[in-house]
Design brief:
About 35% of the residues lie in helices and about 15% in strands. It contains twelve helices and seven strands. This is Phosphatidylinositol-specific phospholipase C X domain-containing protein. One of its GO terms (molecular function) is phosphoric diester hydrolase activity.
Amino acid sequence: MDDSGDLAKNLEFWMTNLPPKLKSVPVIHLAIPGSHDSFTSSITKKSKIAPDADNIIKKMSWLGPLLKYFMVNWSRTQSLSAREQLEKGIRYFDLRIATKRNTNDLYIVHGLYADKVQNVLDAISSFLENHPQEIVILDCQHFYAFEHADHERLMQMFNKTFGTKLLPYSDHMEYVTLEYMIIQYRYQVIAVYRSDAARFGQPMFWPNSSFPNPWPNTVSTTKLFAVLDYGLKNRKPNTSYISQCILTPSYTFIIAHLFSKYISSVNPMKACSYNI
């Protein structure tokens, strides 16, 4: 029987349907599909400019709707919602988070404001409730217009939403398997928090060093795959490794493709096998 074929037919439950021998393999040695700027599908032309936008964009804000008309094609890097991505098998998510003036809510951002973080976490939590043998990795990569109190609020949000589903940090990732997480202890969420100062004393959040994610920062597919090959060959054996199969456009590239969409202009290949 072709296990890979069976798994591909039901991506919503692909971890659930893994054979027992793979559930005993450390999670850091499984190829887990992920998405980049994961929760940007809700960005529209009406979205406000976010704190992570480049200064040149902020200075051009006087252009109003015209500026956003071009921005939205490059800011909305995903077309599927959190739930839809989970149903398609995505299990690693990249979060860029910012505060917003005149509100206590925290938001997903990528040049423009997307959905509230709480809405995204609730969607993931709902999925996990109905899929007890699936896990997710939530990578809080960047924080914009954040103060210490905002970090505390975000971590409290994670703790309140996921509770006992959060896998506590450990130095020994080589022992963390799907069997350990979902069968023995019912952990379903690995929360990576890339602000070591903010996460100090927070046992439920994983540090930057546990999930290295080198950024290729190129628009060349040749350079991209060279970086990916080198990274995979030289990764540390006892930590996770995030292989970013993404191309990053420069300003000159964006100007040359001003009327294009990000997904069509900066797409290394139809199906990339380098996720994590």
